[in-house]
Amino acid sequence: MVIPENNLLCKVIDGKKVLAASYSQIDTFVQCPYKWYKTYVEGHRSTEKHEATSYGTVIHQTMEYFFKNGCRPSYEDMSKAFNYYADIEKIPFDSVKSQIESMQHAARLIRWIVGLFEKDAAGNYKKVWSDLTPMEKVIRGSRPAGVEEDFVLPYKLPKPLTLDGVTYDKVHIIGSVDWRGEYKTKDRTAMYTIDWKSGRKLFDKDKLLHNLQHPIYAFYIYRKYKVLPDMCSYFFTRMLDNQNVKVDKEKVERSVKELNDILLDMYDFETNKIDSYQAHVWNDAKQGYKYETRYLTGRQPACLEPRPKPLCFWCDFSTHKQGTCRYSSDWDESKRKNKKD
Ligand code: SF4
């Protein structure tokens, strides 16, 4: 396979061109390899803003402001910070309803985080320790040792990749840990990591089990601090709810295997491993969308596998946007009532 010159597979880090991938790039591949191919190999990276990512950016910036200012900003300070970042970001809300909901969610998040650290005139926390949830105890009881802590993690490829005559034996995974807290016990320092999520739903069981975001953070933390985090949490800022992942040695081994399998497919431009995909199509008889096996024109590398689903609606290449993906599902929001999705 010929790799277009304008591919986005490499970055210059410390003056050297290296193979690089962010967690979001890896996640794009997991969601739909063909979308990854169009974005990072063909170089059609989207410049269009989406509500989900823009709103998430503003929430991250607002939380960063709180923790980088010693957990002292008041409700008014935080509201001003949120409005300031939102003004710059110009979040493209999908609808007025979504905008109103998102503003309510942000206000509730701000009330919650400010309330967690609020003190009375005598200097005591207004919210007593025994009333806190386990997650709140982690946040208030730890020292925020890292806030939006950037990292570059060299990771050995399961199989070297040759691009443009240069052979790479590792990929540099680039990321940022949203929040890393440290808590000193009698004999050691316990570590926690949190990733702020701004989606409207908690992860399902499968996503929670296989999501590689916290394992990748844990690889970095282990490399830098020589310990694995005691607990890793996805904190859903719209619901003020969290899901935890324990990244112990066993989980690390499983995650390394999962990541290696992904990288093998992602950077395999030569082996024609697939000849079919699961199309997401309307079925008249069932009056709903179904997955059906369809055949590709000849065998192709795994990185070209399309994985159409309702999410195509938000993909830049879908029939609803640029129309450059011939595998796109034509599902749209009006079909949401259909439970068969
Ligand atoms: S439209 Fe759907 S199938 Fe096509 S690239 Fe996007 S997510 Fe993949």
From TrEMBL:
The lineage of its organism: Bacteria, Pseudomonadati, Pseudomonadota, Gammaproteobacteria, Vibrionales. Transmembrane segments: none annotated. Residues 21-318 form the PD-(D/E)XK endonuclease-like domain. It comes from Vibrio olivae. Coiled coil: none annotated. It comes from the Bacteria. Signal peptide: none annotated. This is PD-(D/E)XK nuclease family protein.
